[in-house]
Structure formats: C-alpha cells, structure tokens
Amino acid sequence: MDGDSMAKIDASRERLRRFVEVTSDEELARPIEGDWTAAALLAHTAFWDRRAAWLVRRCQQGHCGPSPVNLDAVNESALPQWRLIPPRAAAQEALAAASEIDGLLPSLTAEQLVALRESKIRYDRSNHRNDHLDQIEQVLGRG
C-alpha cells in the first residue's frame, strides 16, 4: 500500500484515538441523530472495521471475492444491540477495531490489493471513520 494512503488511514485512526481520549462517557451517550448516540455510531464503525478485517484476512488466505451486504438492513437491525454497549466500551472497541484493520494493510501484496479493489471490499476505513467523527463532533459542538 502506498505511503500517502497509509498516512491518510493512520491520521483517521489517530483522530479517533484523540477523540476517545478526550470525550466523556456522558458525551458518548449523547443522541446524535434519531436513535443513534455517539457511542452507537462508534460501535457501528467498529463492526464495519471488524468485518473489513475479516474480509482482508480471508483474501490473504486466497479467498478474495465480493461480499455483498444490505447496509440499511444491517445498520438498523444492529442498532439496538449497539446501543446496549456501555459508551466507554463502544469507544474502546472502535479504536481496537480500527487498529486491527489498519494493522493488516501494510502487509498486503499488490495482487491482494487489486483483488480487494476488484471485489469492492472497502479495506480503507478512514472515510467512514472520519464521516462519523465529523457527525459526532458537530453535535458535540467541536466541529
């Protein structure tokens, strides 16, 4: 993976780390949009980062292929469970999941990167991560 892409990914993970470090449990429990709290959004990002890590590991084992999913169905059906996760635990899980997927990327071969792209697997999670951090920080008055 090229250095510019990894720098962008690393920056998004560092942004998440700083956010988790300075955000209180009360802020994490704040409503963001509808039934979504900041913590639920972080649990959501953790889920999608963990899924991407699983798909990347599968590709590294020679089984790289599309993995279609109905995003709305997964997000809306998982939201009640994500809301049950204590806010601090959700924040820590988001950071752990980001570290997991991002840690896999430097070891990918050029062939694996091509296979992942062709399979439409979103191994670069930085945009998703940053979009939700933007959303949360705006509501918390930080953005």
Structure notes:
This protein is mainly alpha-helical. The chain has one domain (3-139): dinb family like domain (Four Helix Bundle (Hemerythrin (Met), subunit A), Up-down Bundle). It has seven helices and two strands. The chain has helices at residues 3-22, 25-28, 38-60, 71-84, 87-104, 110-118, 126-139, and strands at 31-33, 36-37. Strands 1-2 form a two-stranded antiparallel sheet. It is globular and about 45 Å long. The two termini are 30 Å apart. The mean pLDDT is 96.
Key descriptive features of the protein:
single chain; mainly alpha; Four Helix Bundle (Hemerythrin (Met), subunit A); two-stranded antiparallel sheet; 7 helices
Quick summary of this structure?
The chain is mainly α and 143 residues long. Helices cover 71% and strands 3% of the residues. Helix 1 (3-22) packs antiparallel against helix 5.
SSE inventory with pairings:
Blueprint: H1 3-22, H2 25-28, E1 31-33, E2 36-37, H3 38-60, H4 71-84, H5 87-104, H6 110-118, H7 126-139
Antiparallel strand pairs: 1-2
Helix pairs in contact: 1-5, 1-7, 3-4, 3-5, 3-7
Low-pLDDT sequence parts: none
Task: Give the overall silhouette.
Answer: globular
**How many strands?**
2
What string gives the helices and strands in order?
HHEEHHHHH
Query: How many domains is the backbone divided into?
Result: 1
On the 0 to 100 scale, the average pLDDT is: 96
The CATH top-level class label: Mainly Alpha
What would the CATH topology be?
Four Helix Bundle (Hemerythrin (Met), subunit A)
Strand order, sheet with most strands? 1-2
At the fourth CATH level, what is the homologous superfamily? dinb family like domain
Helix proportion of residues, in percent?
over 70%
Terminal CA distance reads: 30 Å
Largest sheet: 2 strands, antiparallel
The assigned structural class equals: mainly alpha
Report the β-strand fraction as a percent range.
under 5%
CATH architecture: Up-down Bundle
